[in-house]
Specification:
Layout: H1 3-13, H2 21-32, H3 36-58, E1 67-71, E2 77-79, H4 80-93, E3 99-104, E4 111-112, E5 122-130, E6 141-149, E7 171-177, E8 181-186, E9 191-197, E10 202-207, E11 218-220, H5 231-239, E12 252-253, H6 259-269, E13 272-275, H7 288-301, E14 305-307, E15 327-330, H8 332-342
Parallel strand pairs: 3-5, 11-12, 11-13
Antiparallel strand pairs: 1-2, 3-4, 5-6, 6-7, 7-8, 8-9, 9-10, 13-15, 14-15
Helix pairs in contact: 2-3, 3-4, 5-8
Bound molecules: 1,6-di-O-phosphono-alpha-D-fructofuranose.
């Protein structure tokens, strides 16, 4: 019997009820001022995670691997699982009464949901399936989400009102589809992780109040892009390989092709992930509103740091929905070292 099932049974026999996501959110609701709608929204994201995890577990058996033949707004080939994950979000939130707008990496324009308004004042931005290059080879994948609150009580939000600074998020987090399915989120009162117990279909609290080490021993970056990097970036990564007892170098490379998996690793164990601007693409690859901002808030809430290399991610003025941004994220001391190199000060 899986260990987690034993944990659940042990909890019951010890007279404790296992702390489910729903129960934890309600308990924390009082502390954080999170509303019932926000609690319901997070629980619905948990349901989406279960449905996506189920699709991923069976993908090789029901012909949903491979591509759709389409190109998305990002100019990227769409995997069948990208589309399925996106559809799962739409079905879960249409007529849910939970959100009045949805914006996705997979959709050029947001979807406004007047049927949910005015009851629903929240707006959900998401990358439904992060790490798409991993879909066909059974490697880790993720979902990233960011929640904003509509400023207007007297009307539906406009599309522009989804384009906001990261400091305006009211909730953020990710789902990680790895050896287990996890949901990690923050509403500004720390970062908490839940592991899906498939035997009972509930997310159980497994990582309460996650805190990042100030410095790690791993770095995640696509070194295949080395020739495209600035001098400062090249020097930073070169220095990571040089013996240095004070900083525990050389670091080890840990790069999975899935931002969520790489950030989760460094959230728990310390280290740094970098997707920097390049000489001919200074804006980098990752998207600000539904990748960098939510992960930056989670990491900051755990004591880490998230930067473009020159400024705090959460302070970046968003200008358009699918805006890209360089992302340097992880342990505070590691990110500061990288910033010094990227700013030509090291
Ligand atoms: P995809 O979802 O298009 O595979 O992109 C994944 C991602 O946004 C992030 O999860 C990875 O860390 C990064 O891109 C991988 O990009 P490279 O393949 O250029 O290294």
């Amino acid at each position: 019997m899986p260990t987690l099932c034993k944990t659940v049974i042990l909890a019951f026999t010890m007279g404790q009820f296992p702390l489910t996501l729903g129960r934890f959110i309600i308990q924390k609701q009082a502390d954080t001022g999170a509303t019932r709608e926000l609690s319901g929204l997070l629980a619905q994201i948990g349901l989406v995670g279960k449905l996506i995890a189920q699709d991923l577990r069976r993908a090789g058996l029901i012909n949903i691997l491979g591509t759709t033949g389409e190109i998305n707004v990002q100019g990227e080939t769409v995997k069948k699982l990208d589309e399925i994950a996106n559809e799962t979000f739409l079905k879960a939130f249409h007529h849910s009464g939970l959100v009045c707008a949805l914006a996705s990496e997979e959709m050029e324009k947001p979807v406004l949901l007047p049927e949910n308004w005015p009851q629903a004042k929240y707006m959900l931005l998401f990358d439904p399936l992060d790490g798409s290059s991993n879909t066909d080879c059974n490697m880790p994948l993720g979902t990233i989400f960011s929640v904003l609150k509509s400023e207007h009580k007297d009307r539906m939000p406009t599309e522009d009102e989804l384009v906001r600074k990261g400091t305006e998020q009211v909730a953020a987090g990710y789902l990680l589809y790895g050896s287990s399915t996890m949901l990690v989120y923050t509403v500004g009162q720390g970062v908490h992780g839940f592991t899906l117990e498939p035997g009972i279909g509930e997310y159980l609290l497994s990582h309460e109040q996650i805190r990042m080490p100030a410095r790690g021993k791993v770095y995640g970056v696509n070194e295949g892009n080395y020739h495209k990097w600035t001098t400062g970036m090249k020097k930073y990564v070169d220095d990571l390989k040089i013996q240095d007892k004070a900083t525990g170098r050389p670091y080890s490379v840990r790069y999975s092709g899935c931002l969520v998996a790489d950030v989760h690793r460094i959230l728990l164990g310390g280290g740094i992930y970098l997707y920097p601007g390049e000489l001919n693409k200074p804006e980098g690859k990752l998207r600000l509103l539904y990748e960098a901002n939510p992960l930056a808030w989670v990491v900051e809430q755990a004591g880490g740091r998230a930067s473009t290399g020159t400024m705090r991610i959460l302070d970046v003025e968003a200008k358009q929905l699918h805006q890209r941004v360089p992302l340097i994220i992880g342990s505070a001391e590691d990110v500061r070292d990288a910033e010094r190199h990227l700013q030509g000060q090291a």
